[in-house]
Design a protein that fits this description.
- The mean pLDDT is 91.
- A hairpin with a 7-residue loop joins strand 2 and strand 3.
- The chain has 192 residues and is of the alpha/beta class.
- It has one domain: Pyruvate-ferredoxin Oxidoreductase, domain 3, CATH 3.40.920.10.
- The chain is built from 8 helices and 6 strands; from the N terminus they run E-H-E-E-E-H-E-H-H-E-H-H-H-H.
- The chain has a 6-stranded mixed beta sheet with strand order 2-3-1-4-5-6, sandwiched between helices.
- The chain is globular.
- Helix content is 41%, strand content 24%.
Length: 192
């Protein structure tokens, strides 16, 4: 199998690292070679967090260069825009509609760009959804990451049951039921 390159982007505290663990666990359980590399900005303070996940028969490096990502999973609009150069032609972007103001916007030194989703939608195959509302409905507002993982899972060849087992293996027991509901909400999302 040819290598598959997935970028997960967000800001600190959104659960990008749990998402990469769920993804890595699912891939490993199928016997593929997988490499994961996490790049942290000021992640504890809401800064950018990027995770590269590559898998296939043999993966030599976890780094994804510009124009190489098959899928970009974006937990926030501005992070989706920043990641755009990494998406390959014909790639898929899945983006949460949530906006989280970076420090320059909070301090008034900059303004949050308008029309990000429209710009992205005009350039790439984009699925944009309010994952926060879906996570809230599932019973845990912190499960935005797992909602987005569900949407992404639907766009892979990895079986549904493998994903569910991976969520079970990676999510703490006290949060498991809400996260399973969040995963299902994302997996069955139809773009309504």
């Amino acid at each position: 199998m040819k290598n598959v390159n997935i970028m997960i982007v967000g800001v600190g505290g959104q659960g990008t690292l749990l998402a990469s663990r769920i993804l890595g666990n699912a891939i490993l359980s199928l016997g593929y070679d997988v490499k994961v590399s996490e790049v942290h900005g000021m992640s504890q303070r809401g800064g950018s967090v990027v995770t590269y996940v590559k898998y296939g028969d043999k993966v030599y490096s976890p780094v994804i260069d510009k124009g190489e990502a098959d899928i970009i999973l974006a937990f926030e609009q501005l992070e989706a825009l920043r990641a755009l150069p990494y998406l390959k032609m014909g790639g898929k972007m899945i983006a949460n509609t949530q906006k989280i103001n970076p420090m320059p916007v909070i301090t008034g030194a900059a303004t949050y760009p308008e029309g990000i989703l429209e710009t992205l939608g005009a350039k790439v195959d984009l699925t944009a959804l309010d994952a926060l509302a879906m996570a809230k409905e599932a019973g845990n507002t912190k499960a935005v990451n797992v909602v987005l993982m569900g949407v992404m899972a639907k766009n892979t060849d990895i079986p549904y049951e493998t994903w569910v087992e991976s969520v079970r293996a990676c999510v703490p027991a006290k949060f498991l039921e809400a996260n399973l509901r969040a995963f299902d909400a994302g997996y069955h999302y139809t773009g309504a």
